[in-house]
Amino acid sequence: MRAFLFFSALLFSFLTICDTENGLDHLEDSDWNMDNLDFVAKTKKKNSHLGIVYNRLAILTRITNAIALQSEAIRKSVRVRDVIAELLRSPPKHLNNLLAIDPLSLLPILEDNLKASLEIQKFSSEMKELNGKREILELMNVSMRYVKGQQINETKMEIFFGSLQDGSFQKTVESCEDWILDSVIKFEKDSGILDSQKILKCLESLKSYDTKIEKVLEQFQLFIQLGEAKEGIQKFNNLSEEALEYPKIVDSVMKLFEKTDKFRRRQKGPELGSEIYLATIEIGKIQSQEPELSLTLGFPDSGDMAKVLGDLKSPWFLEKVARNHSVAELGKGLFGFFKFGKLMKKVEDNWEMLKTNYKEFQNNIIVFSKKMKDIESFKITENDLKVAESSGEIFQKTWSPPDKIGALDFKNLDEILSKMGKLIEKVQFVKNLAKEIAENTEKVGIESFFKELKSGKPINSLPNFHTFKDLAERFRKLKIGQDELKNFKFGANLRKTSTLIQKLKDSKLKSNLENLKSYGEEFQPELVLKMMKFCKTVFSLSNFKETKIFLQIFAALKHGLLEAEQFVKDIGPQYHREHSGKEDSNPILKLENSQEMALSLGRGMRVLRQMVKTLRYKRRLRKVLEYSEGVHDKIQRYNAFEHVREIWRNRKMEISKLLSELENLNKYAEKVQDSSPMEMRKILDEATKVHGFSSIFGPIFEQFKGQKSFLRETRNFEKLSELELNFASHKGYLHAASLSFDELKQYFDEVFDLDHNRHHHHEIEHNHLPAIFICITIFILIILSVFIIYGFTPTGRIKYTNLYLYYFGKPEAFEKRWRYSLFMDRQDGKNALLDAAREINPTNLRKVLKKGAYINAYNKFGNTSLHLATKRGHPEIVEILIQNGADRTLLNAYNKTAEQMIPSNYRATHPEKISRFKKIEKIYEKFKNKKFRNRVPSKFPLDSYHIFIEDRTDDKVTEKFMEQFQSITTDEATVTTTHFVVRTEKDGVFSTDSLDLLVWILSGVIIVKDTWMTECLKNPKQICNEWAFLVEKIRYKGTVYDTVPQWQQAMAKATMPYLCGVYVAVVIQDYANLISLASIVATHGGVICEKFPEKQNFNSGFRPYLHVETGPFFVIHDGKIDLGVYKNDPDGMYTVMTETEFVHFMLGRKIKRNKSHNPIPALNDLED
Fold it and tell me: Does the predicted TM-score (pTM) go above 0.90?
């Protein structure tokens, strides 16, 4: 029996360990029956090899993140509230707003209101009776507002009816001419002729349809006003007897209002309703937003913090990382983190309780808070009370029973109002449809369709046929609505209506209301109604119990959160007190840049986690390929997003490719799953081969959600919408995470004393000096021989050349290599140096600098990487840049040196970064009088040349050149093009008026004369001598500019962007060169505006940094629009120019810097 129990316990332990290894099984808790898509419970599936690797690396990630947080707590270099906000998955701003509310102070106020509510309930029968009289109060209030307002204008009514008869109304409400609508509607059937310009103009006019019918909508108000008057009269007819009780009703309101005294006598303190309502709003915002994680990426799931203690003791960590050494010292260093984890567990539990309570009783709590807000905001003066009380007396001495106006008198009016109601509906229908067409029609798709028509292909096969077909269907509905408006017949007797209006004016009812109106401010029935509504709100107060529970949970949450926050805040001071004057051997503090390390590792692991999840959802993805034509058609025709429709068309290829890449990754994971962490980390590099595609399942789920058809498909789309499938865009995170393992290995080797090279074994040495000298001499000769032989190898020659240049090189030698920096320093279309500094990646930064990247490059916002790192408070990046020769004297777009980017009052504005900025100040002081050499740029290899040749060059020469140098030439211009060969005139000038060709001049590509090709064919060595054939001058529209070399040099070194601070707005209809112009503007630091820039939205007086005398808003026009108001702008904020003038401006490259000490920025808090 004992043996059986022992065996059972052993088996249970084994299963528990297996379960830990398969820790990602919760990602899809149940499998499904693929035949009918019904989800069925099954035995837990075995984890994939990729899942096993992920789980093991996740152990290391969690421990690293824990070390980082403990380290930051000791150094006091992180805001604890930000850490807590991330763990609760809450945006810090909204969490801070929530915690600003004091639930404990609200509970006594809630109790007082509950007591007052219970006391007043004994008068509920009086309130119920008064509520039955509310109609009289509302009628009196509406009647007085009506009689004090605008009177019915018969003349305007006659003008409106006249417009219906003479056809001017129909012309006004016409959206587009009938023949245009018919040409589109009937085109597929009749294959008629389409006037594309007229159709596009029609689409444009629909945008302003609201404005066009504004006056018509105003005329409709006349009849709405008439209808309200009729309803009021009919109510007085029905309530003529009850209306005489108005004085008694006023008396009842006054008496009941006195009973609500406790609700109106507010004590000083928080407003219960407003505070609770604000809390619900903030909780709602927190739940609707997913914050970006940076401090706790290692803990993707709730409860992950609690796993760290188990991670340290896990068999995998002990064997593969600690190599069976004790983890006690590391665990001791993390004691504060473990305590924080326990405190946060309580906080997380209370947070979940609060969210659950909020979800269940949200409506009750919000209704209560809104009613309390109304009660607390209610204001009434003593004078108001007197006026309200006297309104009954005034009514009694003024009112006399009016004559009733019979139903027959209203017969003709009813007919008019009925007809008008239908007319208003029809106009509203056309108005809404016009707006829908204007907003939802893809104008670009329609334009493309018109171009595709010229190909002569069947219209059904054209790519944008469905877009045109959708437009035709919308135009068909618009035509129906428009025809109904044109054929609308009124047919009512206006004369009878005029007689009725006169009768109403002469009635006793009108006389009564006019008499009451004569009392002015002394008769205000709205005050009585206001008091009655207040009483009703007070009597209807409920949901006290739910609100109290909500506040109690909220109070517990806040108490626990503040306790956890204070605990972490105390870690640093307590640690420094205990270790003051002692040698600090805490292993936690030995990991340098721990937070950046945890961030880099966490980002990569998040991508890998999504891959694991995608692999587990492979059946769901495959099922998508089997969906019916109905699903396909619905997405292809009606999904609002072009990229979704495009990927859905190619879904078979995209999904199959993704699953194939994931399966290959899974096979690779099988090879490394039992290896060391350094070997296992290669899975991250291998994962960069998984490309994926843009997320489409979220938009598709939103499209299908709530519909009765395709329910199973909709459920599948909902699950697939959880996946982030665009893995290619995150490959940088995977590489960075992989690189982090080098530093992690060094750290853990040091912590667990695994670096045996540090240990020295001392042996007794004998004094054999002659032998030693001989050995040393032989050794030196061998070393010298190796160095000499190495110098004859290609690698050696490059190495020795670079060493010579580093110590003895002249500036000219560096300049020759920097000419290629635009291409050498570019990675994935971005400057690798700026990217590494921006991403705070010291490892990548060192690698880029080692290759000789030009260190003083500016980004599009006018900052060098040194400016940026200093401003953001990253001392390690600052030190690396300075030690590699970064120029500390350069000014940015705000005329500040890098050192001046340290905030002057950072202790007040950036308390969380005080230690960082202190370190940066020390670094600048330390290197104040020290200069560092620049890294030697790598030589640009010939095999990296990508030569593109203009089609105007000599065909025979071009063909021979491309044949001889086919490995480095291309017949297609791409973003990797390095050289552009152009045909020049005899004087060496390149002439062109094409903006597409000018893009190359301004892009930094090396522009070479076509004579270079001839010389290279004669002597192939001339291929590396392109600078002797450089185009120096360009002729545009008759003007010659000699700025081509300047542009190439400026782009190579990424100098201050020429258009920094420039905002460009294009006001040309159907502008053909928009893409080229936008490319030029974006390349040189400008901004293409989607909407016309209004100067009041920007800081007054700001100017582009390199063009201080030029207005910052460049308005590109074609002379067809009157822009006089902008040309003559008194503030000089607009620079109005044609495309030709803009090109002259660019080619002229005239610079006048803003030398102000504090240049005005375009906007406050701009990016950097």
Answer: no
